[in-house]
Amino acid sequence: MMNSEHLIRFGWDSFFASHFQPFAAKGFHAGRVMLEYNNFFRVVTAEGELLAEIAGRLKHEAASREQLPSVGDWVALRLRGDGKATIHAVLPRRSRFARKMAGARTEAQVVGANIDTIFLLTSLNQDFNPRRVERFLTSLAESGASPVIILSKADLCADAEEVENRVAEMQQSACGAPVHAVSVVTRQGIDELRQYLSAGRTVALIGSSGVGKSTLINHLVGSEVQQVRDIREHDDRGQHTTRHRQLFLLPQGGLILDTPGMRELQLWDGDTGVHSAFEDIEELAAQCHFSDCHHQQEPHCAVRAAIEAGTLAPERLENYLKLQQELDHLARRQDEAARLSEKNRWKKLTREAKERARAKRTG
């Protein structure tokens, strides 16, 4: 029987234990991916930390990169006796945050798996951008994790009133998610974050480069585990420091995932997210005279009326329409990519069947 006491600190529970039972019966070991770097993984197991790589069969059978291990995943491993292991399977995920891979490829990149809460950071300086937060919330809605908006570097604001005004402004874009203004320098709001960091719980930090993710992690961990650079004077932005995704175990038992900065998040999931992130606009749209109203020049448009009345920011409507258009385009590309993937799969199966038949004839 596997000794799971050590793994409980890293988020192991009955959900993963039940899915691991078939692998345990075959002599596999369970582990959680803490770091991914150049196709190698640092995995924590009941036996300690190991360096692991993916089994060839798992790579071969994966239909996409999304089905391969990512940071936060629980995996089934074979130990090799030299401090290394081979990953043979990825256990079902309770949650996962994905984005479209950069470039022309229509494929998902899993940023983090089995996340309970996502801290979405934006700093209270020139980086403050409610429109970007709306974009992140649209993508996070289908992740299975709960979003929390962190307004970092509150000490850079002129006074408490400016902080309160920025919090109120962000709450209009927060879709009901909690909003916390924090400062590592003055410790403002830091204690409020500990409610999300209880033992066995996993929190991921996301946001654009230089918003203070690494500084916050160092403070919560209690040591300099991440490199930090000073903000640039000409634009108030911090410099990019995190190069890869990594899970850190906190002193109180929770885990925190640092991610490289994302100046632009390319959406992957988001259909449901648009409805939840812009619930106010959707409710107004239901009151429009025309069911297919585009909220432009149509008469009796409730959305335009709200803008004229000053109860809806025109920038928020513009972002809503932009994200809808982007998701429609992405859906068409995903359909085409799925069609090509299925076509290639059948080609591969046919080729392998012919090779087996040829080998049988000549054998």
The H-and-E topology, N to C, reads as HHEEEHEEEEEHEHEHEHEEHHHH
Mean pLDDT across the residues is 81
Span from first to last CA? 44 Å
Radius of gyration: 23 Å
Structural class: alpha/beta
Biggest sheet, spatial arrangement of strands: 10-9-8-11-13-12
Helices, by number, come to 11
Percentage of residues in DSSP E strands: 15-25%
Explain what this protein looks like in three dimensions:
With 363 residues, the chain is an alpha/beta fold. Helices cover 35% and strands 21% of the residues. The chain is built from 11 helices and 13 strands. It has helices spanning 5-8, 14-24, 56-61, 130-140, 160-171, 190-193, 213-221, 271-277, 279-285, 302-309, 314-362; strands at residues 29-37, 40-45, 48-54, 74-79, 84-90, 96-100, 108-113, 117-123, 146-152, 179-181, 202-207, 246-249, 255-258. The strands form 3 sheets. The protein has a 6-stranded mixed sheet with strand order 10-9-8-11-13-12, sandwiched between helices. The longest helix has 49 residues, at 314-362. The protein is flat and about 80 Å long.
What are the main properties of this structure?
363 residues, alpha/beta, six-stranded mixed beta sheet, 13 strands, 35% helix, flat
Explain the layout of strands and helices:
Layout: H1 5-8, H2 14-24, E1 29-37, E2 40-45, E3 48-54, H3 56-61, E4 74-79, E5 84-90, E6 96-100, E7 108-113, E8 117-123, H4 130-140, E9 146-152, H5 160-171, E10 179-181, H6 190-193, E11 202-207, H7 213-221, E12 246-249, E13 255-258, H8 271-277, H9 279-285, H10 302-309, H11 314-362
Parallel strand pairs: 3-5, 8-9, 8-11, 9-10, 11-13
Antiparallel strand pairs: 1-2, 1-4, 2-3, 4-5, 6-7, 12-13
